[in-house]
Amino acid sequence: MPSVYQKASLNALLGLFLEAQGHPLPQHTQVKSASSLSRFLNHYGWSTRQVIRTTRQAVLGQIARQRPHRGVPLRVLIDLTSLPKCGKFCHLSTPTEDPDRADPWVRVLNGKRGLHIVVLYLVLGEWRVPWSLRVWRGEGYASPVQLACKLLATVPTALSQGRVVIVQADTEFGTVEFLNAVGKRSWRALVGMRCNRKMVDAQTLKQLYRTGKRGQQVQLEGFRYPLTVSWFWLKRSQGKRELRFVVSTHPYSGVYLVRLGRKRWTIEGFFKTIKHRFGLHRFGQSTKLGVYRWLILSFIAYLLAHWMNQWSWSSLLDWKAASDLALETLFPSIVWVQLLKSIQSRAEIAAQYGFEVILKPLSSKAYRECCKI
Question: Taking the model in full, what pTM does it have?
Fold first, then answer.
């Protein structure tokens, strides 16, 4: 950060995210004022690109120290998620004479109004890394599929080189454009496909459920190469089931294709965690820059908690425990200030029971002993 004040604001914001309560609002901080955090996000001139670049270098450095075996594939998960928002959000609009293009960030998509982002999520062994994102800006701008194709170019060569790369995506990305973009990089694509998608013989994929065999290769309309197809029943609410199809550019067996396709839900778990634990959708900033910085810092808080869980060698992933460990280890000054505030606000309760809380500095010898512990 350019100054010690901005560094303190950064620490305060990351401390808010790492509380892992799902509502890291600036007015809840006990370290800085809400107005100072708002200025830090919306107006101060620190380099967002440099923060992203530094974080990515740290990610690659950590993975390099504990690099999985060469036989472990790199899974690239791509999906679109919506961050619901109510209100006009005029401050996120771009002034233009065309009223249909006046609000390119907060849009309605699939019946949901809010900010819609396409996220690229990397899975390599036990590592989980939200690597990049793009904001969908509505009709007249790049489509989610086009944004996903651009995100493929951000996958780091240090992780993909010498490995099998499997790109997994939802049905929305089962297009010729997306699969061709994956194929140009000699990667394997594995995406969902609509059941009414037609083959060259005019039949639909749904008809294969009765007459076909899992793992067979089919020629879909618009594709110049065959795809391997399989299907499974997805359980829905009230005991209902839905027939889903998944296709791959690599000739996997039918059973393994379904098993591998189910792993795409890893990114859905990430979306739930980063929203309900790290408040990705709780942004309320006055500028696009502030919103973008909020999303980036939420991603970084998720990474810090994930790293702490990796270092603790815990067999059970508890996001609250991992976040507390990250907060205590990386930002002890914030924990100390929060403790002082809590003691100060509850001093009257201690007095009711005949106690007085006194804080005094340790002697040099006692301080050295505590540092050894």
Answer: 0.88
